[in-house]
Amino acid sequence: MTRTVAGAESWARQHVTDAGGGGFYNGYNWSGMCQALMFRACALAGSAPTAYQAYLASGPDNHDYSAAPRGAFHWWGDPGDPGHVALDLDGGGTRCLMATSHLSGGEDFAPGGYCIGTQSVARYNSLTGLVYLGWTLDNVGSRMADVGTPGPGGSAYTLTADDQKVLQTLAQRGGYTGPVDGVMGVNSWKGVQTAVRGYGYTGPIDGVPGANTYKAIQSLARDGGYTGPVDGILGPNTIRGVANWLAAHPPSSPPAPGPAPTPPAGSLIYGIDVGTSQANLDFLAARSAGFRFCVVKSGGSNDGTHLPYTAPYYVRQVDAARAAGFLVGHYWMTGWGTASGDADYFLTRLHDYRAGDPLMIDVEGVDQSPVWTDAQTASFINIVKARLGATPFLYTYSSLLTSRTWTQTQATGAKLWIADYGAAAGSPRIGTAYPTWAIHQFSSSGSVKGIAVDMNLAKADAFGTATLPPAGPNPVPDPAPDVSLADGVTLQRVAQLGGYTGPLDGVLGPNSWKGIQTLLKQLGLYSGPVDGVPGTNTYKGLQLLAQRGGYTGPVDGVLGPNSYAGLRGYLAQVDGNVTIATADAQTLQQIAQRGGYTGPVDGVMGVNSWKGVQAVLSAGGYYTGPVDGVPGSNTYSGLQRLAAGYGYTGPVDGVPGPNTFAALRSYLTVTSGGPGPISAADGTILQKIGVAGGYTGPIDGVPGANTWKGVQPVLRGYGYSGPLDGAPGTNTYKGLQTLAAAGGYAGPIDGVMGVNSWKGVQTVLRRFGYTGPIDGVPGTNTYAAMQRMAKLGGYSGPADGVLGSFSWRGIQSCLRGSGYSGLIDGVPGAGTYVALQRLAQIGGYTGPLDGVPGTNTYRALSNLV
Description:
about 35% helix; globular
């Protein structure tokens, strides 16, 4: 049973580096695994050895990729070539999920050589030169669950000239300098994409808007009062929200770039450096914080390929930093390359280099690569200097600097950029290794709206005659948390409960904090003064309040995403923010029917309806609370977790909205067929599992009540709840004694294995091929049978009678079971089927826990038997 298109994308993003198993993953990346990615991400019923062979088995094709619907499969290759395949995520071939090393200009899900992400058909064609064969709706007989449905941006609404003027005004916040004439063009869209970086946009600054651009605009619009879904479909309400946001955030206030207030006299110049870890950095917010220069990683030669590379976000980060008003620098990470080779690569791939941009050579030996010598470093610098007339800085760390001599590097005139986190800002330890320093990287724990950044302090003359942006307040870390505008609105809504009457604009001031402190004081969560100045006790009080909305983290005074999710959950309970429309309530009642609800589907949720919903969520592992018919934040969060497997991509914040219910309807549609008939082959697999639980009937592929009575004990396990650490202890042995009880053992479950305990174990092990005497004296044959049992827990080693940590880990997994807590009645229900899917996960199953075992479930189970 296939996934939805959004579900396939979600699976791919979650399995970039851990998709092993089943022979589909080569151990390092997805290179050459394009059809395997389709098979696993889309949950196809069948596959083929190569993409080209899959293409031949996938029905008629269409050669106009621009006409492809969302959920179509695009194909490349020719006879004798393994070919290539991709899944169309939005329609029209603009954004396709694929496994390839040709992701330049698209989105790389995990930079570093994992070869999985999105790319357009046109871009892939230009990068590879492969023959485009066309697109099909099928992939070896399977279609996506929602193929052809409208994708993001599919609104029938046409942006008016006034709407486009609003967007062009937003674009000005992202560096757009063209006219506000109501005609959006590439440069206008580039400005918009830059401006919405802080609202979840992570794509390229290419001036070509798509689903991610539109969703980020809607996220920004929510800070302006927009209450609709973030679905990538722009309408008049979105534009109205953007206009309100612009009015509430004039250009001189965050997150627009400077000019910022003049810093105290004698202040130095602060800046940041960015690389892969800052892919989603809001450069506008960083500039507004007072940082004035930004050094961007251009690439290096330090990775495992031993070849030079361009950093995945280099181009986009240079563009964003430039648009935000920074003085932009470029740094190269040395490693396995030669000085001349690296310098040539660096110089030929500099992006938007301008006279005055600082250049840097990073000498560290990162990723176990060689540390360059003084001579290599100087050679690189001299090559760059000869070509550009600019001398790169030397970047290194204090202990490395002082352990060597840098005579040749000093002779080039290179200034020193020194990392020393253990020294006060402006006082790095360089000893006599270098005459002086120009830039001190003094901290790696700076933060811009939750994104960690390295912080640097430069001397006034560090950049020569280069033009710096206007000065701002010194961005030295302080104890106050970095609050995004969206989280600021959440805090202001909390403040309203304490008497705050100001605007909900996300910009916190003394009155906002006074409202928060007043409420916390009334609830007994805060004992400090109501002074509008937040401190650790105020933040701890907010976390205590968040606990009422489902927050389970530490009360440490450090507000993070989970704290804010808890606060939103609290608000949902207090002010009734979770409002459920009649149609959505009917969806919930249909789900509830799968949990035992027998009442009408009338759109009126009652105790019994909610009990049914909670039962379904509990059986699927999405909810751990009581089945009491009283919905709360945990119930709502459970619904969102269930929805996440069927296309929902929003936050799990306990406040379900239209996108949650849309995904829940997809869940009902996709799973409406129930488990369906069981084939003889799948029935044989179940009977083999049943043998492990005591089934003694024939292996004929026709499972009946006795088969299921054997399967259910395997799924329920034997009481072990400890870690799967491969180190047997008292709890493991208690589990073995519980297992022994099924073989006649009647002694205490005390974790002390004796003769009678082992007799019981040996009796049960008859099911696993043990043929020795039931004498309570375990030996090689007993242990070999235990290893055969351990295969149901994922053990894949030999049954040689030598128990090691991997054997014990498999045994522990068997003793723990798969979460089934129902009766051993031979009547499979939702709980049995969900537990069966959990067992299948050990064998490589990665699909949803929906109680509908299909081909992929049984394929994974076959790996265990």
